[in-house]
Amino acid sequence: MTWFKKPVSVKGTLLALLLPAGILLMALAWLVHGLLLDRMSRQFVETRLKDEVAFLEHQIRDSGGRLDTLQTGDYFQEVFHHAFAIHSDSRTIISPEHWAPLLMPLVKSGEEGTLRVSGAQIAEAPSDILAYRKSFRVDDQPIVVIVSEDLGALSRSQAELHAWTAVVSLLLILLLVGVLWLGINLSMRPVVSLKAALKRLQDGEISRIDVKAPEELQPLVLQLNQLLDSLDQRLERSRDALANLSHSVKTPIAAVRQILEDIDRPLPNNLRQQMAGRLDDIDRQLEAEMRRSRFAGPQVGKSAYPLKQARDLLWMLGRLYPAKSFEMSTVLTEERRWPIEEHDLNEVLGNLLDNAGKWSARFVELGLEEDGQGFTVTVEDDGPGIPPDALDTLGTRGLRLDEQTPGHGLGLAIVREITERYGGTLNFSSGSNGGLKATIYFPGKTRGISQ
Amino acid sequence: MRLLLVEDDRLLADGLTSQLEKAGFSVDTTSSAREASALADHEEYRAVVLDLGLPDGNGLDVLRKWRTRGISFPVLILTARGDWQDKVNGLKAGADDYLAKPFQTEELIARLNAIIRRSEGRVHSLVKAGNFELDENRQSLKLTDGTEHSLTGTEFRLLRCLMSRPGHVFSKEQLMEQLYSLNDNPSENVIEAYIRRLRKLVGTNTISTRRGQGYLFNDVV
């Protein structure tokens, strides 16, 4: 629809819709009122004309058909307010008399009932009349009675009434506009305050939106505040990470440079090894911080297809460890989605499976399950397992280099950190074959998103 | 053993070349994707070490081209990106192994020897049935439109069993033998779950159920 321009504001739309609609409806009411008024007054006049004809007939019958005995003149004028004509063979009475040229043709015409004459050009007589004609006999004498009303006068008063209605309608429209304006402004007030709050947020005057929003806008405000929270957290984390990184990377770089710059110094083997060791430190630290910085954590609108990702990872590990079998047991369907960010889920599954693949003798099994409360990932291998007293500390070492034993646990520490981001739990236990069994549980705030 | 090293960092390439030659390889080095493509067409290499970030293209594209042309030498990918998804993509493109930079030369040489050994006994074997092709080496299912699905071990073995004799009814017990599980007594529901998953890949009608008897692969659908 090209004639309907997309409105830019709610207020504009409401006004653009309600105002013309109100005016149109009012105009329609006015028109209908005019038509009804016309019809009603016509019917009213007709009834009265009929009544008066009946009254005249009664009078004439009482007088036995002798028209001269009728009290004509002022009496009838006063009682009737209407022009009339009484005609018998002997006599014709017409009042007022200058209506005669108008009424005589009606008397002579044979038509009965309601008659209408319009557009008559007779001096001093109205051009537009409604008449009621009745003929009857009194003592075998035919008598015709006509009573007529000046329609011009009627429509003049009707027009006046109609005009007054128009004026009242206009006033009502103005009132309607006022009420609309007030209603729209009142109901838009929370939006306006929200808008002002957003402006203040942009200007940095406030850090969170604290507006008593109406029910409809409450989720929006809540979501926005959550988004701001997660942005803040992310900023803080990335600052921490960079600070850590720069702290632990710059020193080894300085040390290595120092040795390389000294051209007189020979490069014996133990020095080479030390330099390589420093570079390894830098690499490990870089790797840990980079993997950490890639975690998304729970995010609105992010989800993953666990079955597809698990299948790809299992397939890949099957290629990388050709002597071992990587299996999946699940009842999930291909289209099932979990509200976990794709990369995060990949890190969890990849690290657990890779770890299991390293230690297993020939078999690793991945289980994906869900119930009404959340999602469970289990990874079990048939390797040597670990002593029960070490189970609790597995993967609890931090990602910081100085908190780690080299070559151990970075993968599991990543899994633990991601799990905690999602408010989940990571548990290790002994598997049925003596191997290690890792169980992760993600609470599902929203139940899985099915397509 | 001839080996192609595709690496655009001169320092790394030189260092690696001398180390690999010490380990008994005879090494050709190139730093561009175009040259790598051309070399692989004309020379017989036992293995390739491929860097992914090349100045004139992506190593994965080069690898895909080799594989579609049927060049089957084992390829080890070197990259600075150690993401799980990157690894999956690398292997799906046809790589045999994956090593993230930085690495130790001993590990590279050990992995190279492993993939060369693995490739030696390899015969290109395909199981075909209907519109489907099962690639034993890659453990994957190819459809006629060229799409490839990776399969887990059990999925692959079940499908291979069914596709080996299209139209033949396999009982649940027979199919159970293809199943490895940590659980000693896997239930028949497990088979049903696998069949459901396989049907998602090949289409519902391709694997039919014979009530009370078992399943069969329909190659005429």
Structural class of chain A: alpha+beta
Number of helices of chain A: 10
How many domains of chain B?
Answer: 2
Question: So, CATH architecture of the largest domain in chain A?
Answer: 2-Layer Sandwich
Strand order of the largest sheet of chain B: 2-1-3-6-7
**CATH architecture identity of the largest domain in chain B:** 3-Layer(aba) Sandwich
E-strand count of chain B = 13
In round numbers, the mean pLDDT of chain A is 82
Number of helices of chain B: 8
- Show unreliable segments of chain A: 399-408, 446-451
Instruction: Describe the sheet with the most strands of chain B.
Output: 5 strands, parallel
- Whole-Å distance between the termini of chain A? 33 Å
Largest interface: A-B, 37 and 31 residues
CATH homologous superfamily classification of the largest domain in chain B:
Response regulator
- What overall geometry of chain A do the principal axes of the alpha carbons give? rod-shaped
What proportion of the residues of chain B is helical, as a percent range? Answer: 40-55%
